[in-house]
Design brief:
By secondary structure, the protein is α/β, with parallel strands linked by helices. The protein is built from nine helices and twelve strands. Strands 3-2-1-4-5-8-9-10-11-12 form a ten-stranded mixed sheet, with helices on both faces.
Length: about 280
């Protein structure tokens, strides 16, 4: 049994953070230990919500309680996403340190949530710097979108060659695997979107049709699925193909239904047996 400690935000209604990441992992047979950094009524894309952001101590207390059960040695990975504050970030770092102390083979998959094209930076001041200077260098796998990749690498990228250079700059910080999502370069067709997985100096691309929808939580789901398949295969190439197929199936069903929320539960078969698969191409910029 694979065990993942997932430290993320949580919503009661809909799917974002742990409410987006946990179920796909569970559907793939992975045991998830969710620790919530916030508890909101719904994701912030609605413009209004209730609930609260927890402080770092609240996260540390939950992780300490898990450690007290003597189970961290069986934890295979830590997954983290949106950070409500810098002290939450330090609590995540503390959780990773505890897990690595108990299991040196455990990996940290950090989704460096900062912002997105069209929305700009939407996290609190200090979070981008914390991610760039502290979290990303300590992570094994990072899953930025194109906007976040540019921020982490401190450059603008428009061509595939520029993107791979930015990826190399991020990998030089520490993480060995980088999954770049929502990638659009000069050679990306208008009706498509790319994903790029990079590991060991090699870059693999999947191109999927662009869907007409705007939803929250898809990035949380793909980070979780990519981690799950990387843990299974130890291959960024294989993990990319499987995760991309599953998320496309999830988003296709969501678009066809015209749903404001991703159909995370209704699309669950897509995580195990995707309806449509896509070629994974090694690119040489």
């Amino acid at each position: 049994m694979v065990n993942v400690l997932s430290v993320q935000s949580h919503v009661a209604y809909g799917h974002a953070g742990n409410a987006s990441a946990a179920f796909p992992l569970q559907r793939l047979g992975i045991e998830v230990w969710p620790v919530h950094t916030v508890q909101f009524s719904n994701h912030t894309g609605y413009g209004a919500w209730t609930g609260r952001v927890f402080d770092g101590q609240a996260v540390e207390e939950v992780v300490q309680g898990i450690e007290d059960r003597g189970v961290l040695g069986g934890c295979d990975a830590v997954l983290s996403g949106y950070l409500g504050s810098a002290d939450i970030g330090h609590a995540v770092l503390g959780a990773v340190a505890k897990v690595r102390a108990a299991n040196p083979d455990a990996v940290w998959c950090c989704d460096p949530v900062i912002g997105d094209v069209g929305r700009g930076v939407f996290v609190r001041p200090g979070i981008p710097e914390f991610l760039r200077e502290v979290a990303v260098p300590a992570a094994d796998i990072v899953t930025p979108n194109h906007f976040e990749l540019d921020l982490l690498a401190e450059r603008e990228t428009h061509t595939l060659a520029e993107v791979t250079e930015a990826v190399a700059a991020v990998q030089a910080m520490g993480p060995r695997v980088v999954l770049t999502t929502s990638l659009v370069t000069e050679d990306t067709p208008d009706d498509a979107v790319d994903l790029l997985a990079s590991e060991g100096g090699r870059h693999f691309r999947v191109r999927t049709p662009r869907l007409d929808l705007s939803v929250n939580g898809a990035g949380d789901a793909i980070a979780a699925l990519f981690l799950a398949h990387w843990l299974d295969t130890r291959s960024a190439e294989a993990a990319l193909g499987r995760a991309a197929a599953s998320v496309f199936g999830l988003l296709r069903m969501t678009a066809e239904a015209g749903s404001r929320e991703i159909l995370l539960v209704a699309a669950q078969d897509e995580y195990v047996s995707p309806t449509r698969t896509f070629d994974v191409t090694e690119v040489h910029p």
